Amino acid sequence: MLRSANPRVCRPGRPGRPSSARGGRGGLLRGVRWSLVGLAAVVAVTMLAAPDTASAEKLLVYMDLAQTDHLKAYGLAYWCIEQGLNVEWLLNYRGGSFLVDASGLLVRKATLMGVTFDVVPDGQAAEIYSTIERENMEIVLLEKAPAIAVYAPPDREPWDDAVMLALDYAEIPYTKVYDEDVLAGDLDNYDWLHLHHEDFTGQYGKFYSSYRDADWYKQQVASSEAMAKKLGFAKVSELKKAVARKIKEYVGRGGFVFTMCSGTDSFDIALAAENDDIVADVFDGDPADPLYQQKLDYTKTLAFVDFRIIPSPLIYEYSDIDTTPKASRRGQANDYFTLFDFSAKQDPIPTMLTQDHVAVINGFMGQTTGFEKSLIKKSVTILAETEGEDDVRYLHGTLGKGTFTFYGGHDPEDYQHMVGDPATDLALHKNSPGYRLILNNILFPAARKKEQKT
C-alpha cells in the first residue's frame, strides 16, 4: 500500500539493550583489498583472467563503514550459498561481515557486483576467529540458499515494495505468490515469505476516504471481489482472513515470515477477528458486528494483544497498534530508532536480525509506522525502538517451528512515500542501514541455528 496524499504511506516484549556502536570491534585484519571502483580497465581484465586464489586464503566481505555496497554484499553471500560454498556470517565483526574460501571465481563475482573485500591469508583468518572467540561476536554458518516468495498481487510493481526493491537490487531470486497460491498450499515450496503491504482485513487499505473515486482504487476492489468469488468466498474480508490463517499455519510448520507496514498489524487483526465482521458496509455491503471488539480473540494473533479496532472507513487507520501519530509529532528531523545489542553467543537469532554498520537508524513512515509497546505480547523480542516513546519499530517472534519478523514503515529511504511518488533507486542508497535490516531477514533462514538462551 502506498501512502495516501491525505494521510500517510501505506505509512507509515522483550528488549535487549541499546547498542552504542556497530562493527569495528576487535582486530581489523586487512590483506589485499579489491574494488571495482578505481580499478583501471587493464587491471580488471587481468583479474578476470586470473587463476583461482590459493585455497588457504579467505575472502572477507567486510560490512562496516568501509564497504562500498552493503546491499549487493548480501546478494554475493546468497550467490555463494547457491554455489555450495561455505559462508560464515561473522556476527558483530566489522558490522556483520561474511567470510568465504577465496577463489578466482569469487573474486571476479564480487568485483563485478561492486562489493569490496579483503583477501586474507590463513594466519590472519585465524586471528579473526580468535577475536570472535574473545568478544561479543559469533560465527554462524550459512548453509542453504532459502527459496523466497513474496505475497503480492500479480499486477503490483516492485517499486511499491521495499523488499522487492532490495531483492532485485541485491540480485536475489524470488517468486510472487498470491491468494490462490496460498490457499492451494504452495507456501510449502518456500522457506521464506514476505507479505507485501497488504490489507488482510479486507478494507482495501482504508483508502476509501481519499481515493474511492480513483480508477486504481476501483480496479483494486473489482479484482479483489473477483478473486474472492473465484475462490468461493462471499466477501473479500473472508478471503483475506482465510489467507491469513494459511500463512499462520505455514509459520507454525517452520516457515519464516517477514512483513512491513500494514502487512503487520492488519495480519494480526484478521487473525483475531476470525469469526467476527469488523468491516463497514461500504466495503462488503453489510454492517460490522456491533460487538466485534468484545469478540476479538487475541490468542490467535502472532505479535499483538489487547488492541482496539478503528472501524470508521473515513479514518486511515486499522487500530491503536500503529504509532504513526508519535512519528508525526517528532517530525522527520527527530525521527530515528535504535537497534538493541544482543549477546551474539547466547542470542544469535536477534543478533543476526540486527546486524548493521550503525546502531541508530533514520525513521520512515508507513500506514503502520511502528507498534505500541504496551500492545506487544511478552513472548515477542523487541529488536529496535524509538527511545523514550514506547514506539517499537522492529520485532521478532516464534510460532511452533517457525518465526515471524515485523518491521514498521514503508520505505527506509523515502520518509513519507506518497501515492504516485517515483520509485526509490537503491543504486543511490547502496549503504542504507534501514534496507540492511530487510536483507538480514533474507539470509536468516540460511543459517544453522543455535537455541536462543534468553
What does the model show?
- The protein has helices spanning 41-48, 70-82, 104-113, 122-134, 162-170, 179-183, 208-211, 215-230, 236-252, 262-272, 281-284, 292-295, 324-330, 348-353, 433-443, and strands spanning 14-15, 17-18, 32-34, 58-61, 87-91, 97-101, 117-120, 138-142, 148-151, 175-177, 192-195, 256-260, 336-341, 360-362, 371-372, 381-386, 391-399, 402-407.
- By secondary structure, it is α+β, with helices and mostly antiparallel strands.
- It is built from 15 helices and 18 strands.
- The longest helix is centred in the middle third of the chain and has 17 residues, at 236-252.
- It is 30% helix and 17% strand.
- A hairpin with a 2-residue loop joins strand 17 (391-399) and strand 18 (402-407).
- The protein folds into 2 domains: 32-135, no CATH class; 146-446, Rossmann fold (3-Layer(aba) Sandwich), CATH 3.40.50.
- The protein is globular.
- Strands 1, 2, 9, 10, 11, 12, 13, 14, 15, 16, 17 and 18 form a 12-stranded mixed sheet that branches. The chain has a 6-stranded antiparallel sheet with strand order 3-7-4-6-5-8, sandwiched between helices.
